[in-house]
Amino acid sequence: MQKEITFTLNGKVQHSTVNNNRRLVDFIRDDLKLTGTKEGCSVGECGACTVIVDKSAVCSCLLFAVQIDGLELVTVEGLEEAGGLSMLQQKFIEHGAVQCGFCTPGMLMSSYALLLKNPNPSVDDVKTALAGNLCRCTGYKQIISAVLDTK
Amino acid sequence: MIPNIEYFTPKTIAEALQLLSKQENVKIIAGGTDVITGFHQESSRFTKTGALIDINRIPELHQISETTGSVWIGAGCTFTQVVNSPVVQKEFPLLVQASSGVGSLQIRNRATIGGNFVNNAPQSADNSRTMPLQEFLIRPYCTQLAFNEIVTNITLAKLPGSYHGSYYKLGRRRGVAISRITVAALLNVVDDAIADIRFASGAATPIGMRFPEIEALAMNQKVSDDLLRKLAIQTGELVLERTGLRWSTAYKLPVLQQLCYQELFNAVYGKE
Ligand SMILES: Cc1cc2nc3c(=O)[nH]c(=O)nc-3n(C[C@H](O)[C@H](O)[C@H](O)COP(=O)(O)OP(=O)(O)OC[C@H]3O[C@@H](n4cnc5c(N)ncnc54)[C@H](O)[C@@H]3O)c2cc1C
Ligand code: FES
Ligand code: FES
Predict the structure, then answer these.
(1) Thinking of the domain B60-157, which architecture would CATH place it in?
(2) Domain endpoint, select from A54, A77, A100
(3) pLDDT at residue B145, as a whole number
(4) B106 shares contact with chain A (CB less than 8 Å)
(5) What is the pLDDT of residue B101?
(6) Does B126 have pLDDT greater than 70?
(7) Comparing B189 with A147, which gets the higher pLDDT?
(8) Looking at the predicted structure, is the pLDDT value of residue B173 above 70?
(9) B44 touches B50 (CB < 8 A)
(10) For residues B272 and B265, what is the distance between their CA atoms, to the nearest angstrom?
């Protein structure tokens, strides 16, 4: 059983046919071939699969693809600016916020959603926004500094 | 594997109810934080599901409104909506505090208050019945909801400003942890005596519940440190009676009693 959906993918209108039981994360990685988005825990706990739907950070392992019909989807590939890295991505590199990199796309999307709503966040705002993103490598400090340094 | 399912997106409550009564093995999906993880983990609560009814496109379920005596929260409101609502912030700061502790921001952006109650982990619209939450919750993962019913809203009666409350969630760690013990206390203290008390726990008990026995003990008593201690100790004993002795009791009981004391103290002295 399938459905036709129309949504905005990283700023461009996209039509797709998806199975009703396809999770958003599988649709993004396997159908759209946008493999920046990662799958870690599959149950909403690690945040590796975070994408932005209608300006809010959500776990793509906890949505069906059919649910984004008519909505706006931004994945980590959508952060690209003028063919290069965005300021946020550059700051992640500068601050050593990327080690193995598995958590990075999710971290970037949660940070990006925060900065959309609050361009001048406090340390606590950043911690709240990133509480659902786990990182086994960095110890988080570098990530928080990178976000605070992105204005 | 998630079974291949039918997927409906009704625009009105009437349409959703019709789908619910017509289809077999249908399930409502709101935020999907329980439904999709349940599917993915092949939980027995979901394996037979043949169709999902997505209630996210029903505008009525996403509204928060206010009348003179109460606040009406649509069952489809996410915890983020509840946390950001000026009305809820003003009238029910404890609900804001509890809601902002649910999961992570990504979870709160999707998970709904209606889904939370139904998961049981209050009110419905067949011929439209209304009931207190206490009666709605039966046992873990089980509520009064009939298969053909939808929770449309949660109505909360406003309280006078003299009430003070306190809430605490204890998990294994601070962020994104399933709660082990939650305690909430709401008190109205008049002339140093307890004029009204609502005292409840979640997680420590099999389902969320108030403690009428403890509330009765507290009513009209003068506030003192001894009283709060006595109430906290007896609450612990009551929970032990209900849950039975477990391997974790030696750890949990003193923690629960201390938390009860702390939350009663905070509520009496107006500390948030
Ligand atoms: C990582 C993670 C962390 C979590 N942390 C917490 C936490 O800290 N505290 C907590 O309490 N919970 C937590 N949860 C559990 C879950 O998020 C909540 O129970 C949530 O509120 C469920 O709402 P939902 O809209 O996502 O429900 P759904 O998954 O959409 O539905 C849940 C159930 O309710 C039914 N349902 C939903 N809406 C209605 C309605 N309006 N009428 C009738 N039936 C309905 C569905 O059919 C289904 O059976 C967590 C979950 C995850 C994945
Ligand atoms: S894979 Fe979605 S939160 Fe972990
Ligand atoms: S950089 Fe390895 S998990 Fe975060």
Answers:
(1) 2-Layer Sandwich (3.30)
(2) A77
(3) 63
(4) yes
(5) 85
(6) no
(7) A147
(8) no
(9) no
(10) 10
Tell me the average pLDDT across A102-110.
98
Pairing of strands B153-157, B142-143: unpaired
Q: How many CB atoms lie within 10 A of CB B248?
A: 11
CB B157 within 8 A of CB B177: no
Q: Where are the domains of chain B?
A: 6-54, 60-157, 169-269
Q: DSSP code of B147?
A: T
CB contact under 8 A, B110 and A59: yes
Q: Which residues of A66-100 are buried (b: 16+ CB within 10 A; e: fewer)?
A: bbbbeeebbbbebbeeeeeebebbebbeebebbee
CB within 8 Å: A21 and B2 = yes
pLDDT score, position B121? 46
Identify all chain B residues contacting A128, using CB atoms and an 8 Å cutoff: 105
ipTM value for the complex: 0.95
First to last CA, chain A: 45
Q: Which fold has domain B6-54?
A: 3.30.43
Facing residue for B54 by CB, picked from A47, A67, A133: A67
Above 80 in pLDDT, residue A30? yes
Residue B71 has pLDDT above 80, yes or no: yes
Question: Is the pLDDT assigned to residue B142 strictly greater than 70?
Answer: no
Judgement on whether residues A18 and A59 belong to the same structural domain of the protein: yes
- At position A27, the amino acid (one-letter code) is F
Contact by Cβ (8 Å): A38, A57: no
- When pLDDT is cut at 50, 70 and 90, the band that residue B125 belongs to is very low
CA distance B120 to B139: 8
Burial class for B144, CB neighbours closer than 10 Å (0-12, 13-18, 19+)? middle
Question: What does the DSSP assignment read for A64-79?
Answer: BGGGGTTSEEE-GGGG
From A77, A105, A133, give the residue that closes a domain: A77
C-alpha distance from B92 to closest chain A C-alpha (Å):
21
Asked if residue A101 has its Cβ within 6 Å of ligand 3, the reply is yes
Expressed as residue numbers, the domain containing A108 is 87-148
Residue A33 sits in the same domain as residue A94? no
